[in-house]
# Entry
Amino acid sequence: MSKAVNGWPAYKAANPTFSREGYAKSLNINPVTLSKYISGERVLGKGQGCPGILKSDEATFITDVVRRHDRGRDGLTPAGVISLVASVKPNLSEKQAKKLAHNLRRPSSTQRLRRSA
# Structure
């Protein structure tokens, strides 16, 4: 989508008789969607939902610590995981830390490789 939006001015300059709809159809993109991005009604890079509270590296760190405790036969209790989350993100409320600890999952190795590529 970013290539299409950024390429629109050059395309319009080279083909002044073509419309946004024709440009969108040539790229197999919904014309209404492309028009919203070109006009500035929608912003590139802003997906659905609010941004995550934990960054990817923070979530990986927490899950690695929990796994290492488990491997060392000194597993963390749920309260221990909550306190670990709270220590990484001290500005969270207790309820937020509890919810994050409950829903925290480490991405599989294939997902991590796809993100880094």
